[in-house]
Amino acid sequence: RPILMTSLAMIAGMLPMALGTGEGGQQTAPLGRAVEGGLIFAKEEIKNVLTGSQSGKPSLLRNVASVSDGTMVGQYDHFDGQRVVSITANIHGADLGTVSRLVKKALGEIEQPPMGISVALRGQVVPLDQMFGGLQTGLVLAIIVIFLLLVANFQSMKLAAIVVSTVPAVIAGVVVILWATDTTLNIESFMGAIMSIGVAVSNAIILVTFAERSRMVGMDSADAAVDGARSRLRPILMTSLAMIAGMLPMALGTGEGGQQTAPLGRAVEGGLIFATFATLLVLPAVFTVIQGRTNRNSSSLDPDDPSSPNYKTPAGPPEESEASGPYWRQDNK
């Protein structure tokens, strides 16, 4: 009963207003229909709109207010407690990174906004910038970590620098293949670049290891570099060609959703093609130049390493003497 009484009382009280009956009822209804239809009233018609008063009797708007032409904001938006004016747009036929650069360029060309007003980019641009910043930092850290591990492995900064010299070729190959195929730089292409760097460094380690081994046994640095490239030609080609062939279907972007992962395959293709040629043709020359004037003494500091200048020959077993022989105790009884 309380629920029904409340609902019926509300319905009965709003019924005259909904029907537009009573004093001034026919004049308030057209105002609502006109606003909903997008029509604009004349100034005199607006002045004749009936309004309420404290006495309960309706009154014309002209008697309680003045009407004039002007402009105002239709809606105020707030972000983080501050009033904002949002300018939004939908992009078509262009990637988000390109549009973001164009917007930033346009903002840089406009005059300085008045005091108290600031301009900021929102939406997907902010996470895009954060993502690319993180990927760039990760790529640089990966190269640094690889260099440090190579220094620890070869115990030589020169050999580590020779191996890392193949990284620029990988980056150049990725840039060229993305430009040639009109592919954007995104997460997938960044992952492909990192994968290419890993394979290129692995091939370079194999070549440099064998070349340095040949140089340490007395071979000239140029001959050692050629010998390392010749002896490791087949493993390097097999590794690179297997990776290139495996990534070819992904690079073509065939099948459902293939265009989403195509940048990864294309980045791997371009990076490995350039890195393979650099490893077999450029890396031996770099090895010859850097190791040409390097002595053949080992840089190892381990005293147990036979090739280290700090190696100490272990002392032989002590000679046995009569005094050091077994002691026999004899009881005199």
Verbal overview:
This protein is mainly alpha-helical and 333 residues long. It has twelve helices and four strands. The strands form two sheets. Strands 1-2 form a two-stranded antiparallel ribbon. A two-stranded antiparallel sheet has the order 3-4. Strand 3 (77-79) and strand 4 form a beta hairpin. Helix 7 (157-164) packs across helix 9, helix 8 packs antiparallel against helix 12 and helix 9 (187-216) runs parallel beside helix 12. The protein starts with a helix and ends in a 42-residue tail after the last helix.
By secondary-structure content and strand pairing, the structural class works out as: mainly alpha
Order of helices and strands: HHHEEHEEHHHHHHHH
The main pleated sheet reads as: 2 strands, antiparallel
Rg calc: 41 Å
Between the first and last Cα atoms, what is the distance in angstroms? 126 Å
What are the segments in which pLDDT stays under 50 over at least 5 consecutive residues? 22-37
**Strand order within the widest sheet?**
1-2
Estimate the global geometry from the Cα principal axes: elongated
Helix content: 55-70%
What is the oligomeric state here? single chain
Give the overall pLDDT as a whole number.
77
Strand content: under 5%
Number of strands: 4
- What is the overall number of helices? 12
